[in-house]
């Protein structure tokens, strides 16, 4: 028997081959309202997180009196906390806690995984554009009118937000005679 044909793959080789398999699935686009409610939940979480992490600094160091022009150290730390939450949760879990509650995830538009560059452009550059001026928040209204439900931040990060696969029940329907 030829040795080349009798090679039994090791467990490590089998796992590597399984990881290389790709699976195609259809992911439905998450619309404006489900994303809006998830974002509101995230704002509550970020506010709570900021309070837990930064209140000791506010009390001990009075960080709002430390300023650089119009910026305060407290404002800077709050901003870093918020951007950090959205960036790290999206990169490592493809969803924030708000998105988890509502069953939606961030997907790469072009690849099978989210790169750091995609996440940084989506969560930092995109959110900065949306939040830099009061009226730029209106740019979120692009989402309901886009066929793929993608906002500017999604386009910058080459991402889209989709519904997680849902479990369901197959039912039999009767067709009505017309």
UniProtKB/TrEMBL annotation:
The chain crosses the membrane at residues 36-60, 66-88. It is found in: Cell membrane. Pfam families: RDD (PF06271). It is a multi-pass membrane protein. Keywords: Cell membrane, Membrane, Transmembrane, Transmembrane helix. One of its GO terms (cellular component) is plasma membrane. InterPro entries: Pra-immunoreactive, RDD. Its main location: membrane. The keyword Cell membrane applies. Coiled coil: none annotated. The keyword DNA repair does not apply. Residues 29-157 form the RDD domain. This is RDD domain-containing protein. It comes from Salipaludibacillus keqinensis.
């Amino acid at each position: 028997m030829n040795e080349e044909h009798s090679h039994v793959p090791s467990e490590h080789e089998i796992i590597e081959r399984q990881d290389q398999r790709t699976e195609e699935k259809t992911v439905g686009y998450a619309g404006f309202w489900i994303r809006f409610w998830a974002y509101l939940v995230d704002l509550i979480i970020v506010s709570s997180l900021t309070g837990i992490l930064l209140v000791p600094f506010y009390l001990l160091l009075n960080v709002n009196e430390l300023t650089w022009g119009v910026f305060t150290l407290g404002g800077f730390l709050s901003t870093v906390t918020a951007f950090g939450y959205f960036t790290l949760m999206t990169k490592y879990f493809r969803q924030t806690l708000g998105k988890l509650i509502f069953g939606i995830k961030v997907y790469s538009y072009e690849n099978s995984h989210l790169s750091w560059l995609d996440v940084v452009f989506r969560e930092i550059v995109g959110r900065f554009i949306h939040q830099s001026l009061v009226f730029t928040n209106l740019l979120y209204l692009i989402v309901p009118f886009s066929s793929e439900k993608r906002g500017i931040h999604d386009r910058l990060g080459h991402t889209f937000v989709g519904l997680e696969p849902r479990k369901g029940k197959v039912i039999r329907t009767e067709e009505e005679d017309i």
